[in-house]
């Protein structure tokens, strides 16, 4: 699938004044895995909304394998809905970039070429709509982060959001994923073109069904029969994605460029582990992903829940407890004996909420997670994981806590994660820099000024603001548990909160 190109005599780090590109890739060292296919023969079949580091380390890498195996109709048109940064970095490189797979004691480099072009939606929404409407586009994939789905506290579409209001008034010039998807599907329908399949790759519960519901809600607000068309005719398979992708640093860029002998403005760092579970529902066709390790299934739900509650949930826990304890990276936080013991207890609580009869091997999964979190080469920043807690915690932590309580068991470890998020938010501007991590509700959180409320008042106010456990019979009990943890964090730090759980250690 990938071949290694022979090194060109004289190639060295002195070549870093030149960029990685179609022309310079032939000069890469033999240690770098390069493309084994003719990119000129590749045609686009996928439009991806939200081209960030995760997409380039995950879906784009799988598609690259398919292209190398001769499936040339699945090139990717990348779309940034906000920033031009990725386009500006990759355009001079013909869309090429380096994927650096790092373990604690080794690193391998591979050049990925599946992204054929990059569009920036605010600059040229017409070009994005044209790509989405193109008859050759059979799949639209998304990694736009949880907050970009613009859900209200109850889980439905936030119809009052300014960008939603704009897209409804200006369907020809959309800003949101909803606006682009609805308008392009309307144009395809009018032109007699088969709908594309919409494949959500974000960490949302039942992500395909969730996006389907949100887009139908949006289309209904357009005042046409488009909503029924989307509801009945467009496929929204769910998927579960899993790979740790830390932010690329300037040191990473310098190191990778030195190894390549040419400059790569935006390489991607990742771990050896990679998983993708996809519901097999693609009426317009798809690549043969299963040939390269993708698990195609009828029901993604159990895999998704395991990942959200065991990986994502513990990731958030490590992030907030690590920030409160002064740890900048996941591996350093996880190496702390008390935090490590807490994560084991968190997993024990969350595991009880997963289905027992679908073949999930939670013991093996958590053992792999422990190995992944201990990877010292990734330097995955706790502040990066801490972003957008109000959007992430409902499916990562709160859902598990509610299910555990409904089964008659206390979610003590789970609710400490919620309290740690509140405490970490309160710490910004004091022990942590003001914008050390961010959240879509930061303005509303600042208006609450929870630091001047009692722990009980603060927890109740945050639950009201975020919609955590809204409508659940367990809500008041969860607020009380979070408040008790928050009081301990305020008075005695993480160590006091751990002591209450029977965890002893040197964590501050």
Automatic annotation (TrEMBL):
EC category name: oxidoreductase
GO terms, molecular function: oxidoreductase activity
Region Disordered, residue ranges: 1-24
Span of domain Mannitol dehydrogenase N-terminal: 45-290
Keyword Oxidoreductase: yes
Domain Mannitol dehydrogenase C-terminal positions: 299-467
Chain intervals with Polar residues compositional bias: 9-24
Keyword Oxidoreductase: yes
Protein name: Uncharacterized oxidoreductase YdfI
Upper taxonomic lineage: Bacteria, Pseudomonadati, Pseudomonadota, Alphaproteobacteria, Hyphomicrobiales
Gene name tied to this protein: ydfI
């Amino acid at each position: 699938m990938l071949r290694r190109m022979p090194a060109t005599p004289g190639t060295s780090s002195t070549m870093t004044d030149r960029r990685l590109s179609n022309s310079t890739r032939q000069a890469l060292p033999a240690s770098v895995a390069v493309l084994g296919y003719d990119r000129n023969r590749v045609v686009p079949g996928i439009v991806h909304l939200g081209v960030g580091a995760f997409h380039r380390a995950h879906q784009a890498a799988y598609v690259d394998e398919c292209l190398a195996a001769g499936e040339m109709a699945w090139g990717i048109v990348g779309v940034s809905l906000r920033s031009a940064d990725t386009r500006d970095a990759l355009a001079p490189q013909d869309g090429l970039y380096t994927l650096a797979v790092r373990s604690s004691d080794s690193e391998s480099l591979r050049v990925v070429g599946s992204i054929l072009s990059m569009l920036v939606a605010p600059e040229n929404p017409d070009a994005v709509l044209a790509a989405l409407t193109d008859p050759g586009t059979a799949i639209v994939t998304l990694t736009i982060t949880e907050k970009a789905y613009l859900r209200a506290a109850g889980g439905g579409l936030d119809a009052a959001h300014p960008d939603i209001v704009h897209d409804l008034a200006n369907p020809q010039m959309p800003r949101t994923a909803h606006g682009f998807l609805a308008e392009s599907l309307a144009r395809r329908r009018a032109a007699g073109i088969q709908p594309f399949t919409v494949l959500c790759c974000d960490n949302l519960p039942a992500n395909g069904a969730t996006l389907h519901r949100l887009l139908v809600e949006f289309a209904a607000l357009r005042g046409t029969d488009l909503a029924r068309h989307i509801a009945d005719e467009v496929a929204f398979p769910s998927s579960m994605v899993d790979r740790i992708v830390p932010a690329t640093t300037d040191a990473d860029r310098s190191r990778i460029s030195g190894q390549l002998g040419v400059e790569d403005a935006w390489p991607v760092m990742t771990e050896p582990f990679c998983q993708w579970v996809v519901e097999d529902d693609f009426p317009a066709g798809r690549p043969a992903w299963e040939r390269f390790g993708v698990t195609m299934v009828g029901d993604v739900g159990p895999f998704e829940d395991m990942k959200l509650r065991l990986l994502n949930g513990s990731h958030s826990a490590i992030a907030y407890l690590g920030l409160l304890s002064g740890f900048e990276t996941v591996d350093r936080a996880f190496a702390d004996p008390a935090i490590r013991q807490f994560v084991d207890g968190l997993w024990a609580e969350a595991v009880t909420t997963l289905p027992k009869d679908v073949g999930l091997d939670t013991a093996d999964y958590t053992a792999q997670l422990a190995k992944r979190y201990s990877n010292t080469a990734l330097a995955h920043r706790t502040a990066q994981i801490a972003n957008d807690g109000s959007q992430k915690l409902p499916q990562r932590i709160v859902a598990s806590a509610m299910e555990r309580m409904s089964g008659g068991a206390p979610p003590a470890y789970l609710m400490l994660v919620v309290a740690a998020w509140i405490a970490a938010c309160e710490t910004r501007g004091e022990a942590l820099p003001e914008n050390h991590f961010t959240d879509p509700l930061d303005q509303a959180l600042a208006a609450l000024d929870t630091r001047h409320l009692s722990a009980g008042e603060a927890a109740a106010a945050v639950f009201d603001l975020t919609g955590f456990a809204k409508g659940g019979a367990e809500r008041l009990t969860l607020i009380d548990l979070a408040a008790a943890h928050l009081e301990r964090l305020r008075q005695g730090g993480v160590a006091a909160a751990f002591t209450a759980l029977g965890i002893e250690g040197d964590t501050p």
